[in-house]
Amino acid sequence: MLALQGGVREHAAAFADLGEHVVEVRRPADLQGLAGLVIPGGESTTLSLLLGSSGLDGPLTEVLQSGLPTFGTCAGMILLATDVLDGRPDQLSFGVIDLTIRRNGYGRQAASFEGEVLVPALGDVPLPAVFIRAPVVESSGPDVEVLATLRGEGGAPDRPVICRQGPVLVAAFHPELTADRRLQRLFVEMTKEERR
Predict the structure, then answer these.
(1) Between the chain's N and C termini, which has fewer beta carbons within 10 Å?
(2) Band of the pLDDT at 49, cuts 50, 70, 90?
(3) Domains in the chain: ranges and CATH
(4) DSSP label at 103?
(5) Residues 153, 176, 189, 194: which is the catalytic one?
(6) Which DSSP category does 2 fall into?
(7) Can 145 be counted among the known catalytic residues?
(8) What pTM value is reported for the model?
């Protein structure tokens, strides 16, 4: 798990609930031997700067390009996308999932909200979802599988909130802030698929 900033502790606890050993990644050497990587929510601009100052940006680019299973939530989704709108000109994006993302697309901190999303791949029970300064998916490429959408209000279009492209899974919200571990379990299964 990328442990530079953001919801590191909450994500680690969620995977520990599933019996998974979590390695905290803070420097390039920590990337060795990982079965998968979680990039937690936080602040995408701050994470970009910390990735540069820690020397992780280049090595992380290499492991992501090599196909390491990766799960990005909120700011992690932004960092993994191909295009970022409303970011800084030097905003880091790894481009491993073909999404155009708008930072803070659902509004600032005061506009945070909780809801539920139906994820057919995870069963018939809706998944609780906590949106905090969440990114909006403006568009997705042809190889992106949309696993869940959030219903638009007032005539607004439905928006993808969980997407997958190959070994990359992203969510616009914070699944680590609820007790439901189905999305984390899906990612664990993805890491096992890669090991087979």
Answers:
(1) C
(2) confident
(3) 8-195 (3.40.50.880)
(4) T
(5) 176
(6) B
(7) no
(8) 0.94
